[in-house]
Write a structure and sequence with these properties.
With about 180 residues, this protein is α/β, with parallel strands linked by helices. It contains seven helices and five strands, in the order H-E-H-E-H-H-H-E-H-E-H-E.
Length: about 180
């Protein structure tokens, strides 16, 4: 096969089959910089042919929430969580120097100037590379998050035992 005849999807599949190393990432944080780090690592590992699973739990679920999706929870506490936790990968705050959104806007401007993709683009790339997304059902229940408030492309809705089964097979397990 010549280079001109290579199909990237087939080549990536062959690479993953021949080198089934696994990476798992627990994304606990809903901060932009931490979510960005998780997706950079996930896409880098997937590009190297590794099988990657990202387990979204607690505030990390905000990264995969649809922008503007409201909570369908019945009780006021969970509805309040939905109001306070604005979802959407493009509206996550910085972990430090957020300054009511000013720091985040400055960081996004610097990223654009340096042609660095934002969290939404990194997440889209991760999905395109076959990164496996698992949304934590326990946390979804606690925070009043439903499946219809999350983006499309979530591979699985499961609890910690599913994550642990993935992590047990992983050669790299990260907690962000």
């Amino acid at each position: 096969m010549t280079i001109a005849q290579m199909d990237p999807a087939v080549t990536l599949g062959d690479l993953q089959a021949s080198k089934p190393e696994k990476v798992t990432i627990v994304l606990l944080s809903g901060d932009m910089d931490r979510a960005m780090a998780a997706f950079i690592i996930a896409t880098g590992a997937a590009a190297m042919g590794m099988q990657v699973t990202v387990f979204f739990t607690f505030w990390g679920l905000n990264a995969i929430r649809r922008k503007g999706a409201t909570s369908s929870a019945k009780d006021w506490l969970r509805q309040l969580f939905g109001l306070l936790n604005k979802g959407g990968a493009d509206s996550l705050p910085l972990s430090r120097f957020h300054f009511w959104g000013l720091g985040t806007k400055m960081m996004q401007q610097v990223m654009r100037q340096n042609r660095m993709p934002g969290v939404p683009e990194l997440m889209e790339t991760a999905l395109g590379l076959g990164v496996h997304f698992i949304a934590c059902t326990t946390t979804m229940g606690l925070m009043g998050i439903t499946k219809d408030t999350l983006i499309e492309g979530i591979d699985q809705f499961a609890g910690v035992t599913t994550y642990l089964a993935e992590a047990k097979q992983g050669s790299v397990n990260l907690f962000i």
